[in-house]
Amino acid sequence: MPREMMFAEAIAVAITEEMQRDSNVVFYGQNMAMTDRDPFVRKFGKDRVRITPISETAELGIAVGAAMQGLRPVVELYMAEFMLVAFDEVINEAPRLRYMSGGQVKVPCVFKAGFGFAAGWAGQHSNCTYHTMMGIPGLRVALPSCSADAYGLIKSAIRDDNPVVYLHHYMLMLDKSPVPDGDYLVPFGVADVKRPGTDVTIVATAWMVKKSLAAAEMLAKDGISAEVVDPRTVAPLDVDTIVKSVKKTGRLVLVDQAPRHASAAVVIAGEVAEHGFKYLKAPVKMVTALDTSVPYSETMERYVLPSEEKIVAAVKSVMAMQAATV
Fold first, then answer.
1. Backbone angles phi, psi at 239, to 5 degrees
2. Three-state secondary-structure class, residue 324
3. Does residue 144 sit in the same domain as residue 217?
4. 143 and 18, same structural domain?
5. Helices and strands, number each (H, E), in the chain
6. Catalytic pick from 18, 59, 76, 125?
7. What pLDDT, on the 0 to 100 scale, is given for residue 127?
8. How far apart are CA 176 and CA 141, in angstroms?
9. Could you confirm whether 4 is annotated as catalytic?
């Protein structure tokens, strides 16, 4: 029977199980292992669960070195923005060493961080920076949208022999949904059709999947059948599943919390333009954040970010454009 778990709980359970399964998995971060009462310290001890100095460059550099020596580090960075001060390790060190050594060196580490905190955290903690990482050869980027995917993707990330940026959305952390029993893994590069449909394809990531599913419910009341596709990983990106869906529906709306010109949506739109243009009955529509920093004001935040209403309006616009050309 599937287990009901909160999103955050699913991640913690999966890491615990992986540490029990493999003694080479270590877990550390700036606010971890602060007391002996820490549940990970109590279970695995301070050799495998450690607090680090306030230095992201040191944290990620340690992970790269430890991974090269056979460990499987999971670095708790808390916020994706904290990675930006250590981008040399993220995009120039960890992903390159396996290639530069001719495959002799593996770097199996996980850089785990929350992102997109759209709840009054404003300009420096509400960002979606995955577009900066999804095109880096050798680096994998995971964006779970539900408890099952959060659980299965972190397990796959820990077992992968490549560095993985594992990004969990803050606005999903308390959401509860089923997680399959057993050693459930979600493979990288395999998208998931969260809701089947026939009239329009909506491709969304992370928190935007939840909003897209809500929008699909609203559209169904108006007789519009929306298929919602979640890539789950943006590196590697499952272009085939997206194009297959577009071939069926003939229309595509891309939903991404990132700003329009710094989004995964732009990359997906380009792939569909090359591989699925002949299937489109209407132009591709993108529902993204505006090209601006996220404001503190709740009213302005709603204005800047995508919403269910904006998704519904975009879908109806592509439906109307298709109808006008018939």
1. -70, -35
2. helix
3. no
4. yes
5. 11, 14
6. 125
7. 83
8. 23
9. no
- Phi, psi for 254 (deg, rounded to 5): -105, 130
Q: Give the tens place of pLDDT for each residue, 234-244.
A: 999 999 999 99
What residue numbers bound the domain in which 226 lies? 192-325
Q: Take residue 272 and report the two structure tokens written for it.
A: 């569909």
Question: Is 275 designated active site?
Answer: no
Single residue among 153, 179, 205 that ends a domain in this structure: 179
Determine what percent of the chain is predicted with pLDDT higher than 70. Answer: 98
One domain for residues 38 and 148: yes
Q: Examine the domain organization and report whether 166 and 95 are in the same domain.
A: yes
- For the entire predicted model, the pTM comes to 0.94
Return the H-helix or E-strand segment holding 204.
strand 200-204
A 10 A CB-CB count for 298 gives 11
User: Which residue out of 9, 18, 56, 76 is catalytically annotated?
Assistant: 56
9-31 pLDDT, tens digit each: 999 999 999 999 999 999 999 88
Instruction: Determine the length of the chain.
Output: 326
